[in-house]
Amino acid sequence: MNLLAKTYYGLEQVLAQELIELGANNVEISNRAVYFEGDLALLYRANLQLHTAIRILRPLLTFKAKSADEIYDNLRHFNFDEVMKVNDTFIINETVNSETMRNSQFVKYRTKDAIVDFFQEKYNRRPNVSVQNPNIYFDVHVSHDTVTLSLDSSGESLHLRGWRTDQTAAPISEVLAAGMLRMTGWKGECDLIDPMCGSGTILIEAALIALNMAPCIYRRSFGFMNWADFDKDLFDDIYDDDSNEQEFEHKIYGYDIDATAVAIAERNVKSAGLSKYIEIKRRPIEEFETPAEPAIIVTNPPYGKRIVTDDMFDLYRNLGSAFKHHFAGNVAWVISSEKNLLSAIGMKPSEKIDLVNGSLECEFNKYEVFAGKRNDFIRKQHENGERKPREDRKPRESRDSRNTRGSRNTRDSKNTRYHKDKKKQ
């Protein structure tokens, strides 16, 4: 099958690498998406095992149209009997980027008309649209005059892992957190610390990566489960296969000054069955202690987007101070939408990556924390062959060019919701 995995801006390369590791063929990067080929088993694995995908789409047809009415006319020729039944409920998600079709809701409306009218004319009955728990998920994508109608095999967005019991205000997306972690290169070879952990998203995604566990193993359902060609035995075999899970011998630590956030994070970690690997404490950044073992920091501090106060600058200054005085010899990564706050850290990042968190354009910065003078640290890295001279490094691509580049011991304790539902059936 020709398939498409959607993701967030900046995570395309990470998702492509995940797909290659999963065994996908003809992997091709697009804007916020990756095209690939695979069989039904790969489609199931992609939904279960990809950390950085939002949705997995199965394109049905692609055609040219300059208006919503032309979309309707083209879709009327498609045999919707192949993908759904007249008594199925359905929903349509739309993405429209067109000079001639400005009203995305009208595009969705005419797509719905084409589906309904097909069944009305053939059976004198019509399927119904349902916002809550539809049987079939459609995706219509319009890019200029090119229209693609797809089946959404995921159903709900894949960032909804199934372990979250509660959340703090504006938590980072699970998909973005996983992408950030993979960008650092961390795979569980040392301790990991999030000194501003909020509801624990980064902590949990880090544990899933370290254990090489399928991130969506906790979900109740996927869109493909209502497809006519759903192979339940094949999916059960894939779901039950934990042969690739691995041991994690280090520890993940989360801290936060907010007692409510700490309580929420602890509940989420327990829901995911990962309490053995994650330790959470209430602690302000001013009380950050030097870790006993080598570690990496990955954190998503508050951005202060609406109002940037002196307290916000102090927060970032204290973060930088904690790095300098208690984290020498290690690496820290920080994401934020506010460059002036990042500058308050008082350290020069060795790497900057452009990402998007919700609607906010962000920088994901790497800080190599060293004792003494920075130039001495860099010279020592050059001498040890750990760092390439600047002229030998690959130049950063512009934002525009990136847009167009072509363990069993935890399984018993986590939410096996899918299998509970199977027993009920």
Distance between the termini: 30 Å
Report Rg: 24 Å
Going across the biggest sheet, name each strand in turn.
2-3-1-4-8-7-5-6
Oligomer: single chain
Number of strands: 15
The helix content is 25-40%
Instruction: Label the structural class.
Output: alpha/beta
Give a short account of the largest sheet.
8 strands, mixed
Task: Please give a structural write-up.
The chain has 425 residues and is of the alpha/beta class. A hairpin with a 2-residue loop joins strand 7 (136-143) and strand 8 (146-152). Helix 2 packs across helix 7 (232-240), helix 3 (68-75) runs parallel beside helix 4 (104-123) and helix 5 packs across helix 6 (201-211). The chain has 14 helices and 15 strands. It has helices spanning 12-22, 40-49, 68-75, 104-123, 174-184, 201-211, 232-240, 259-271, 310-326, 339-343, 374-383, 399-404, 408-411, 417-424, and strands spanning 2-6, 25-30, 33-37, 55-64, 89-97, 128-129, 136-143, 146-152, 191-194, 252-256, 278-282, 295-299, 331-336, 351-357, 360-368. The chain has an eight-stranded mixed beta sheet.
